[in-house]
């Protein structure tokens, strides 16, 4: 489990300070620095002013979580009440376990939860790998964002639609697979949801990308 406030807020910081001191995923800090980010240096600051807390909350309201008041934040040191976060997680796990059990019994439920655990551990390595393990592994003419060490990788790109260098160029874009071979299943899913009314608005920065670098579709 990765609470929304830890991932969403730290993601904004990561983009603002990529590969610089203060980046919670700074690959230059080494493998364990990235792998243990949520434990060592990713939690919300405990000493935000009222205005800083308000601005922080604005970065996460799109997730739909119920946020603490400033007084409650000062008590708990978090944006969401810990009891609510734990309860929501447990109810989520129970609901999905029951659904999987009804479909295929304990075998299917345990297999799905085991796969989720495998993913949860493996995804911790992504930003370390996605920023060249702290070294400049960008390919000229392919990794076009030159402001940080992010790189486009085939495996994360295909399985998660995370063409990371493209994502750093246009972080608000729902699509990050801009070139013909850059398969983007996450984008296909978003487009499908849009067609059936599950998504109302989205940003697609592919036209801006192609125009910026004078590339053909």
TrEMBL record:
Pfam families: FA_desaturase. Keywords: Fatty acid biosynthesis, Fatty acid metabolism, Iron, Lipid biosynthesis, Lipid metabolism, Membrane, Oxidoreductase, Transmembrane, Transmembrane helix. The lineage of its organism: Bacteria, Pseudomonadati, Bacteroidota, Sphingobacteriia, Sphingobacteriales. Belongs to the fatty acid desaturase type 2 family. It is found in: Membrane. This is Fatty acid desaturase domain-containing protein. Residues 2-192 form the Fatty acid desaturase domain. It comes from Olivibacter ginsenosidimutans. It comes from the Bacteria. Its main location: membrane. It is a multi-pass membrane protein.
């Amino acid at each position: 489990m990765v609470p929304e406030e830890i991932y969403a807020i730290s993601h904004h910081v990561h983009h603002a300070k990529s590969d610089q001191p203060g980046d919670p995923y700074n690959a230059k800090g080494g493998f364990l620095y990235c792998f243990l980010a949520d434990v060592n240096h990713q939690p919300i600051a405990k000493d935000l002013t009222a205005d800083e807390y308000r601005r922080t909350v604005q970065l996460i309201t799109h997730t739909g979580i119920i946020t603490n008041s400033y007084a409650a934040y000062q008590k708990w040191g978090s944006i969401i009440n810990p009891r609510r976060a734990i309860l929501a997680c447990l109810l989520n796990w129970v609901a999905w376990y029951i659904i999987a059990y009804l479909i295929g019994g304990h075998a299917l439920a345990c297999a799905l939860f085991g796969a989720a655990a495998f993913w949860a551990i493996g995804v911790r390595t992504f930003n370390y790998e996605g920023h060249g393990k702290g070294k400049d592994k960008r390919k000229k003419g392919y990794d076009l964002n030159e402001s940080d060490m992010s790189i486009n990788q085939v495996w994360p790109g295909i399985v998660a639609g995370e063409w990371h260098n493209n994502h750093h160029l246009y972080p608000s874009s729902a699509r990050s697979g801009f070139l013909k071979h850059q398969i983007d299943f996450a984008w296909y899913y978003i487009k499908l949801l849009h067609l059936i009314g599950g998504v109302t608005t989205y940003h697609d920065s592919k036209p801006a990308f192609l125009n910026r670098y004078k590339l053909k579709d």
